[in-house]
Amino acid sequence: MSQIQTPQILITGATGNIGKELTKYLSNKGIPFRAMVRSVKDAKELTSFAEAEIVEGDFNDAESLKKALHGIDKAFLLTNSSEFAEQQQSTFVKVAAHTGLKHIVKLSQWAAAVDSPVRFLRYHAVVENLIRASGISYTFLRPNLFMQGLLGFRETIIHKGQFYGAVGDAKISLIDIRDIAATAGEALTQPGHEGKIYNLTGPESLTHQQIAEKLSAATNRPIQFIDITPEILLDTLLDVGFPKWQAEGLVEDYAHYKLREASEVHPGVTDVTGKTPISFDNFARDHAFLFSA
Ligand SMILES: NC(=O)c1ccc[n+]([C@@H]2O[C@H](COP(=O)([O-])OP(=O)(O)OC[C@H]3O[C@@H](n4cnc5c(N)ncnc54)[C@H](OP(=O)(O)O)[C@@H]3O)[C@@H](O)[C@H]2O)c1
């Protein structure tokens, strides 16, 4: 009987959007990994993977990170975006430097820069710099806007046939998170990605109007994009429960998109995986049932 080896790869954020896809990707390839979760009882899906060793760990608890990193060579670093993300990721890097981690694949963001007006882009750049200074070998994945972000508008799409943004007619080369996970999986398991920064985009650049047309075609019902002001966007995000820091960050993100700073198409996904990234038409077809009542 074949036995699963001791994992040398740690996946953080394993219960999140990208993390879930990444654990599936590694499992499908029969690669053992350790998944760090805040609560084992809330990570039931992971228990079905024979390749997964599940450990509890919290970015706010350095001691738990030390245990999660014990014996690990390579790690995927991802937290959600919050005002604590910079501190949490920095703690992880400092602990990893002590436990002897050899390689870190960090989920960053397209256009990360310490002087960006977008808070998310600033914190990602600060952590990237900390990793560079730590001496740990790295791969930085800088994805553009996630196609799956549209699922956040699921309710209004189903009930009103509408979704919203403060972006005008700017094009964005948005990406399917399944491609981000596949890129991370390759960077964690194949040589040649050390010291590399990959800009990750989909295969084309689309306006939100074009996104609405494609969603309408996939769901066979009219779906409209409504362009709103940054002020209304902020109020809407706060009304639906986004924390202030994150809602303001999303408004900054949209301002950056509106300036057409996120429209270029880059070959990062193909460079790493050898595959053409998933098109928005395919994303819409695969998720059409989720946008229908
Ligand atoms: N949305 C976009 O369009 C976009 C574009 C480019 C880059 N990004 C970047 O993508 C990242 C978010 O990726 P995602 O959507 O996959 O994230 P996500 O779904 O929000 O997942 C976050 C993960 O972090 C875990 N986590 C949260 N707090 C933790 C803690 N204190 N200790 C341990 N684990 C903790 C969560 O675990 P629990 O299940 O326990 O909560 C979850 O597994 C952000 O860094 C963002 O800047 C986003």
Report on the architecture of this protein.
By secondary structure, this protein is of the alpha/beta class. The protein has a domain at 9-143 and 176-200 and 265-275: NAD(P)-binding Rossmann-like Domain (Rossmann fold), CATH 3.40.50.720. The protein is 42% helix and 14% strand. It contains eleven helices and nine strands. It has helices spanning 17-28, 62-69, 85-99, 119-134, 154-160, 177-189, 208-219, 230-239, 244-258, 268-273, 280-287; strands spanning 9-11, 33-37, 52-56, 74-77, 103-107, 137-143, 162-165, 196-200, 224-227. The strands form two sheets. Strands 3-2-1-4-5-6-8 form a seven-stranded parallel sheet, sandwiched between helices. A two-stranded parallel ribbon has the order 7-9. Strand 1 (9-11), helix 1 and strand 2 form a beta-alpha-beta unit. Helix 1 (17-28) crosses helix 6 (177-189). The longest helix has 16 residues, at 119-134. The termini are far apart. The mean pLDDT is 96. The chain binds NADP nicotinamide-adenine-dinucleotide phosphate (NAP). Residues 13-19, 38, 58-60, 78-81, 107, 109, 120, 143, 145-146, 149 line the site of NADP nicotinamide-adenine-dinucleotide phosphate.
Count of separate DSSP helical elements: 11
What fraction, in percent, of the residue positions are helical?
40-55%
Which stretches are low in confidence, meaning pLDDT under 50 for 5 or more residues running? none
**Secondary-structure class:** alpha/beta
CATH topology grouping of the domain at 9-143 and 176-200 and 265-275: Rossmann fold
Rg: 19 Å
Strand order of the largest sheet: 3-2-1-4-5-6-8
CATH architecture of the domain at 9-143 and 176-200 and 265-275: 3-Layer(aba) Sandwich
Spatial gap, N to C terminus: 46 Å
Molecular shape: globular
CATH superfamily of the domain at 9-143 and 176-200 and 265-275: NAD(P)-binding Rossmann-like Domain
- Please state roughly what percent of the residues sit in beta strands, choosing from under 5%, 5-15%, 15-25%, 25-35%, 35-45% or over 45%: 5-15%
Mean pLDDT, all residues: 96
- CATH class type of the domain at 9-143 and 176-200 and 265-275: Alpha Beta
- Number of β-strand runs: 9
